[in-house]
C-alpha cells in the first residue's frame, strides 16, 4: 500500500511509541476492521482501522488522498481494541 505521512510526526511517534509511520505500509487493510471517525469535523474523512502486521494487532488512523493513504496516527492496539477485533471479525 502506498502511504505518506508527516516525517516529524512519524519521528515523534517512534520516540513515544517505538513505531515509525513507515511500518504502516505493512498494515493488512484487507483483513482490517475499518470505521469512519465521526467524533468531530476534520475537513476530510478519517478512518480508524484495526489490523495486523505479522502477528500483532495495530490501530491506524488515516485519510485517503487520491490513491495514497495518509497516516495520522499509528500504535499497537490496546486490550479493549483486541477484544473488539476478536468479537467482530
How is this structure best described in words?
Strand 3 (47-53) and strand 4 (56-65) form a beta hairpin. The chain contains two helices and five strands. The protein has one domain (3-88): Ribonuclease toxin, BrnT, of type II toxin-antitoxin system (Nuclear Transport Factor 2, Chain: A, Roll). The two termini are 21 Å apart. With 89 residues, it is an alpha+beta fold. 19% of the residues are buried. The chain is globular and about 35 Å long. The chain has a five-stranded mixed beta sheet. Helix content is 24%, strand content 36%.
What's this entry about, in short?
The chain is 24% helix and 36% strand. The protein is built from 2 helices and 5 strands, in the order E-H-E-E-E-E-H. The protein is globular, with a radius of gyration of 13 Å.
Counting helices, strands and paired strands, the structural category is alpha+beta
CATH class: Alpha Beta
Taking pLDDT < 50 over at least 5 consecutive residues as the criterion, the unreliable ranges are: none
The N- to C-terminal Cα distance equals 21 Å
**CATH superfamily descriptor:** Ribonuclease toxin, BrnT, of type II toxin-antitoxin system
Assign the CATH topology: Nuclear Transport Factor 2, Chain: A
How many DSSP E strands? Answer: 5
In total, how many domains does the architecture comprise? 1
List keywords for this structure.
alpha+beta, about 35% strand, about 90 residues, single chain, five-stranded mixed sheet, 5 strands, Nuclear Transport Factor 2, Chain: A
